[in-house]
Design brief:
mainly beta, elongated
């Protein structure tokens, strides 16, 4: 009888130890939880409507690239930056180079699926340089707008981001009375990883 009780007690002790160990393991981190870092970038196809002296011009189209870094300060709420957006447009002997820095606070909505919808505010500065026949003219100003879209988990730590973005860019020369700059509507796709 004692020989039958010992294996039973031994099996019961092993099961209790395994249950105790799994209960003490730290919970698995998930995207958008506090302390999560997101790193990546996106490419955007942008329709740009120039504004000069308060008058709007014809739409032109542009391809731009923006890196991204974000940190979740609380569940779903992320503080992000687009630190060095670059856009280059060339037409004949004229080139326009735009550099952009944007702060991007966002809210990521938790869902039980692999898709995370988000809304994002954008605010910062844009600098534009017009290069024509060896001479350069530069202006800079305030930029603001927003973006919304989805982040889809396509790998364990990788996210495909698809979104629509609007920016109002002001690029007034010193002493200008009316707004100059552009209105920008973009469709963007990008990739990021979270840690």
């Amino acid at each position: 009888m004692r020989q039958h009780v010992t294996p039973f007690v031994l099996i019961l002790a092993v099961l209790l130890c395994a249950a105790s160990a799994s209960a003490q393991a730290p919970p698995r981190k998930r995207f958008a939880s506090p302390g999560t870092v997101e790193l990546g970038g996106s490419a955007a196809f942008t329709a740009v409507q120039p504004v000069a002296g308060g008058n709007t011009g014809s739409w032109v189209y542009d391809l731009s690239f923006m890196p991204y870094a974000g940190y979740f300060v609380m569940e779903g709420f992320e503080l992000g930056i687009n630190p060095a957006g670059v856009s280059v447009t060339t037409s004949g002997d004229t080139s326009t180079v735009r550099l952009r820095f944007l702060v991007a606070p966002s809210y990521n909505f938790h869902t039980p699926t692999m898709v995370t919808p988000f809304v994002e505010g954008l605010a910062g500065f844009t600098s534009s340089s017009l290069i024509r026949s060896g001479s350069t003219t530069s202006v800079s100003g305030f930029t603001f707008g927003g973006r919304f879209g989805i982040k889809a988990a396509v790998t364990e730590r990788g996210l495909l981001t698809i979104g629509v973005q609007y920016l109002r860019v002001t690029l007034n020369a010193p002493g200008a009375g009316s707004r100059s700059g552009s209105n920008e509507l973009a469709v963007a796709a990008g990739w990021s990883v979270w840690l």
